[in-house]
């Protein structure tokens, strides 16, 4: 008997997935009526803390890989208070296609609402290629605490290609728009103007209307540049940006945690 020829499906070119989180105010509490994710996003509700709803994003598969198109959309409605974190670090890896991956985060915070976006670090593994962005839209009375951390390469390996962009709009006006590229083909990324030989970088962005009246002053933290340093800088609006460089994630988190209580 002659068997029919076997057919094989085309090699996948990447995963397209979106996680959606929406928080709303319900009396003295915050509810999360929208909590959905697919692909690598397993979105879990955690126990609340006071009137703050807490959500954790768990990685259900290896991502982002080359060709992946990933997106997270989180909204804190009027008067809602939302805290989002991830269970583990996110590792950008080389995928089945040489195409770059994208990882886009969109955060929206309405009047009298607050959002804490505190994911674990992003690790750019060797030969990966990722374009990461975070876009934030805040109402005039909204509050935000955002932490981002990037690690360039796992232990003993060089980093992949990584491009990051952070865009903040406050009351419809652009308050911050910064972009940085690391790894192969990125000019001078390892020089004194960007990483200065370090392999971990991160920042905390805090937006609070109270800074209109009492903005903090510029401050440098860390006595030895070889062990990392952080700088606290007020922005041209009710916001503060803390930026840190360090040789590893442990030192980076220590610097960011030391700077945060100062504001």
From TrEMBL:
InterPro entries: UreD. The keyword Ubl conjugation does not apply. The keyword Chaperone applies. Keywords: Chaperone, Cytoplasm, Nickel insertion. It comes from the Bacteria. Required for maturation of urease via the functional incorporation of the urease nickel metallocenter. This is Urease accessory protein UreD. It comes from Nonomuraea rubra. The lineage of its organism: Bacteria, Bacillati, Actinomycetota, Actinomycetes, Streptosporangiales.
